[in-house]
User: Fold this.
Amino acid sequence: MSLLSITHIKKSYSTVDGQTLPVLKDITASFDTGEFVSIVGESGGGKSTLMNIIAGLDSHFSGDVQVNHQSLRAMSEHQRDRYRRENIGFIFQSFNLISHLTVLENVLVSLEMTNLSRKQQHARAEHLLTQVGLHDRAKVYPNQLSGGQKQRVAIARALASDPEIIIADEPTGALDEQNTQDILHLLDQISASGKLVIAVTHSQIVADHGTRVLHLENGQLVHDTQLKPINSLKQKTEKLATHRLGIRATFLMALKHMQRNLGTNLLITFGGAIGIFSVVVMLALGRGVSGYMHHEISGNLNPTTVEVTHKVKNGNSAAVQMTAHDMKTLSNLPHVTHVEKGYFMPSVQIQYHGQQVTTSYSQTYNKTFLSKNLISGHNPTGNNEIILSRDVAKKYNRHHYQQLLNHQVTIYVNAVDTQQKPVVLSHNMKVVGFTKSSNTAVVSWATIDNMAKAQRIKLQPTFLAVTTDRLSHVKPLQSKIKKLHYNLTGVDAYIDTIDRYVCLASYVLAGIAAISLLVSAIMIIVVLYISVGTRTKEIGILRALGVQKADIRSLFVSEALILGIVYSLLGLLLAKGLSISINSAAHSFIHYPIMQVAPAFALFALATGIVISLIAAWAPAHKAAKLDPVEALSYE
Ligand SMILES: Nc1ncnc2c1ncn2[C@@H]1O[C@H](COP(=O)(O)OP(=O)(O)OP(=O)(O)O)[C@@H](O)[C@H]1O
Assistant:
């Protein structure tokens, strides 16, 4: 039984004007191992079409092709890919080597799909290159070879997976006489080694060289002439098992292609890195600024004490009195250790040696005040003690304001009596300290309470200072207080709001910066689309070698992935570098790292870069995988 038999092969093409063009009209023939068959005939007679059908590249035909009793018609696309990998070796007129791979790597593409170990693959590739006389050119690229040498590489590649059938389409078409003779000699050796060589040719020299000539005319087999006895009928003992190219090989191939197009890829990497860099910088600055605000605010105020007032819809909550009931309610909240009465004084007049200064905002002392805020002296915890902010004190003595310490001043505070009539409370106070805050004066609750009592007024607090035991309990306490429809006052209460605005601003800026990521995604799409166009032939070659669609797809996806990973890392590195220099510069001014590249931002940046590049690769990779192998091979 013959190795290859074709029965009743018919094939038509549709022309652009909608006509049907019959190219092969019922071809039947069989071929055996050891044969060197030349197919000759007029140009356009259907020779290449027949070869594509035998090679399993074209499945749109009627009739059948049987190889080792297996019908090609019954095969799925994956099975046909495997059939090409294991049974077919291609030699083309225009060599069809992959330009960005070395001679050795071109031969290895086929071998990488065999089950041989990497060492065996290299040994076999080197052995085949020695066989075709090119062992010393293994490391060079195809454009550094002569036409004859290129065809020898193509022959070595065709033999790599040890296929039974070698299909040579005009193998000597681009060669001079000497090279033609050398290649024919090699083909002779191949057929003599027990393989079937089928060569499509216009050359009489080639046709006369083989063991048999088939003459195609007008889509029909008109002559089948045996020229010589078959070289050998040596049966193959073992066949090389194959598998798909796989992720590792496609990834390495993508890397090699990128190396050969370094300039373009560096530009895309740089563009993408700028995008990632800008996004990370915005997020890191947002985090740094909000951290700095927390640090400053909780550094100047006691973070475990919050000031609470009544919530009022319209009007000033600072003027609504807090009752004993409020005090009890707040004291009973979990983790509350202390509740202190407090009084807001919208304006306090302070008189010293006949000179009167009015503060814009004052309140009674409570635990939210930190001693470190004092420039000198101590907090006004005792009776009839007052501390002044530095700016207020300077109004009395610009250059030596500290001289006011321990001096007596008179204060006047506006309040209301039991009939809600306005009264002015006044008393002499001793200045016991100065604070960094601005335009304020602070006295204790007891002091103001006594001033009121002196005028027979029972002063009700206008806020309560609630202290909790631990910093971690502050946030839950604040939300519980809010749920009870109280209001949180003091700067600390605004941290969340400011935080929200800073976060929002940094997200908006990061969003704007992300536009450059979009641009880099478009760049990747454009470059990959162009790449699909310029690599159409390469895709055809790979498909002819038995590479599956999925591997073609992963070839392009790998390129995008490499770009995504490299530009994300570069962007991150640049952002980290900037943060180091900004923070070291900021250290001398604010003693705080104002740009914080959190690990989450690094992960986010990496994930964004990868996702964007994968999305960008999707359409071009699909386009490449969907290319018809026959059309891709004939692409000029
Ligand atoms: N994809 C296609 N669509 C339409 N017609 C096609 C297509 N491919 C080939 N043909 C036509 O089929 C016919 C046979 O083409 P084929 O390439 O098989 O001929 P050939 O014998 O190999 O020619 P040559 O010796 O010049 O290489 C030609 O007329 C060609 O124009």
Q: What stands out?
A: Residues 304-489 form one domain. The chain has three domains: 4-243, 258-296+499-633, 304-489. The chain has a mean pLDDT of 87. The longest strand covers residues 422-435.
